[in-house]
Amino acid sequence: MDEQPFQSIPRGQQWGENWGYGWFRSTIIVPKEAEGKRLVAMLDFGSEATVYVDGIVSGAKDLNHHYITLTRSAKSGEPFEIVAEAYAGHSNSQPVFGESQLCIFEEEVYQFFIDLECLYDLRNHLDVKSLRVAEIDRCLTQVFAALDLTLRQELLGENVKECREIMKPLLSCVNGSTAPTLYLMGQSHLDVAWLWPIAETKRKIARTLSNQLALMDEYPEYTYMQSQPYLFQLVKRLYPELYTRIKQAVKEGRIIPEGSMWIEPDTNLTGGESLIRQAMHGKRFFKEEFGVDNEMLWLPDVFGYSGNLPQIMKGCGIKYFGTVKLFGTYDNVADPFPHNTFLWEGIDGSQILSHLLNYGDYYPIRISPSFLINQWKDRVQLEGISTRLTQFGHGDGGGGSSRDDLEFMRRLGNLEGVPKTKHGSPIEFFRDQIEKGIPDAKYVGELYYPAHRGTYTTQAVIKKLNRKAEIGFREAELWGAAADHLNSRVYPYGEMDRLWKVLLLHQFHDILPGSSIHRVHEEAQLELMELNKDMYNMASEARDAITDGESSSVTVFNSLSWRRQELVALPNGVHGIANSNGAVLPVQLHEGVSYVQLEAPSMGWSTYKTEPEVPAVPVLSTVFASESHMENEWIDLGINEKGEITRVVDKETGTEWAADCCNVMRMYRDQNSDFDAWEIDRRYRLAPVELNANAKISVTANGPLFANIRVERELNHSTMIQDIRLLAGSRRVEFHTTIQWREKNKLLKVDFPVRIHTNESLQEIQFGHVKRPNHASRPHDADRYEVVQHKWSALAEANRGFALLNDCKYGISVNDNTMSLTLLRAPTWPDETSDQGVHHFTYAFTFWNGAFLDSPVVREAYELNYPVSLVPGGGGGTHSVLCIDQANVIAETVKLAEDGSGDWVVRLYESKGASVVCKLHIGLSVAEVSETNMLEEKIAEVPHEGGEVMLRLRPFGVKTLRLALRKA
After folding, report:
1. In 3D, which of 22, 10, 75 has the Cα closest to residue 47?
2. In whole angstroms, what is the distance from residue 706 CA to residue 632 CA?
3. How much of the chain, in percent, has pLDDT values that exceed 90?
């Protein structure tokens, strides 16, 4: 820093530029007047700043921290060098350099005002007719009579000391035996990105933790909990000296690394396997760096909590759950959540002891008598609990506690009229609750957040990139494991670890939901596009290692755990395909590309011979299309002048499924009272935007393998090109859609009203599905007017059903018999360009006859999302790595174990909500099979014979197996 050219800056001068940082430096000499006193620097750069004192990161100037203590006992003539890195912001409004001051801190006066505020705030929140208030009023009258504010320095100090003696007896009064207890948790919520970019978060975490370490130097009783290992990793890399101090504080029990997951992810949109990896990487980091094993999942600010999160927590060794969010619904009027401390039961029956905290006055969360009194009064659970968990400290942008908080905490351990307090780890609260007895309160299913419903849709590109990345990891891990075992290709453990952490970072609850500023979204898209490129290249290289590269053959790879037949585009130069029996397969040419339908085994591959010329294969086409009609063996569709579906006839039964036109585009004005990117107002249907323009409709394919109708139309200021596609022999109708989106504050949905009578809908979530009302009979039913899904949603009667599938759309509303898939939004805050541009996505519908348990909906949704891969070269015929004999059991993940042992890890789940016994066939030589938890730690040996394993799964149960293989 000495080599940097500094220049003087006058007060009132603007400085910096958008996204920039400025460095400021000053050297001060302690004046003789400060001898023995606390000396502080009150700094004003016009913005937040990281402050270094004598080369050490010592704290921050931020919204809740206004000065830096240089010394608590100054020595005349002692020098201090202060250097600060300040953020210039990004709002096109330069910060203004203010007046910084060196101040002597009159400690006795400060303590007096804390005492005074403590009593005054207390009396204002008690029964005005109580004896306690009368005594406080009498005491404060005496204090004001004794206080002489005309005095200065030592004389004022002596005066306020006398006043403190007057207040001391009332500050010493304690509660009776029935007073509740609040467990106080020092904490700072730090959004990894939100209204600032990740580059600023790198500074925010240093400011936050240096603030807290400075407080610990003065308050030895103070402990601070910090979540998100990613933030610790930033400090480790960027601030090594600070990280050394953090490690020592953790060792001493002063800083508590807790929270379990790598970052605080969204749990609505993030896939099940990703949530497991969040816990795996998070817990591993804290264990390796600090020797601690996390027990609590802390997600204070996430926009709803998946119904399968309890099973994931339990499988990852997480015992407790805590959040703040459910009691803060902003402008949304909602049915209040009924519990504070309860057993949360997930869709599989797993139970987790959970506690919901209250914000209080939002941020900063400042300790005071009124804050603690209201923390108890604001509880919704009036019986069965005598304790609550309470966080304090500035958050959202970090910062943490201030000195005022800790002074109040010293006075409020057991002050009459205020709940008693204990300070420490949140784990102590949960253990104490277990010792006292868990309340007779249980909540079953998802913790639906009745707000921020727009986050299921906003920033559609990021959501699509996340979905594709999760699929890419599945492909790369499965084929990477196969190539490692069968062809001795080294599995890229290190690169896989790095790439997973990139994905986990971008599942943060303001990045994946799309609720950040433009720069955050722009950087996230670039990072995720690069991640997808790396991931799919890795998967491709693994498949290439399995094949021989010969031009006379191609091999089709299928990562799903059942045999499937799929339409595949042939590579350039290949015009025909023959199967293993030499039979030439039919080919369809479409827009210059040759397509063929190929079959591949469960989690395996099949090799086909290539033909240099287009084969003349006589085939009777069973799929046809005109501009108003499309059909195959199973489905008869009618299409109108807008590209809407007027008729959906099941040719097997003669049933008409459409209750009205389907595939109807609906646009609405999307204007919210606040939180534009987050919210969809419940009254949005009252503000439709007419979409009356007819479409240009043309037939672009007409068999023998598939038919395709192209729909081109205007949607207000936007344009859409949609290919409606139906394959021969399929019950799935696909809508391959491209929209040039040019709207502002608009919402686009597509409606499918069908002839189904039911009072609930089904939506896929992680490792299963949930049932939700399709009506508004009661407040909580009405609150769920927009819900989250993963790959499918369905309406089902006992003997039939209809489902919508998607490849990247998470928001949906279901009203009576109409499913409305949410396609796009266009909020203008905090990202004024949100979702503008070109969007490519596919949705589809399918229907079935028979019970839901026997329906194809889960497999159809997977097949829409997980294409097969065609690779040049032979793969030695047909080989299946793994297959399962029950259709409702899905192998979600196959990978090599994290410990580098070479063991395989297989994760399966039951998808339909049914108990099942299934047979798993492993197409490799198995030496040993073990059941593990989700962190791949062995639980028990599992019998196996001839590569077959019998498994029993509960409804929606997830099971993880570890396979020790014999070398190929």
Report:
1. 22
2. 9
3. 94
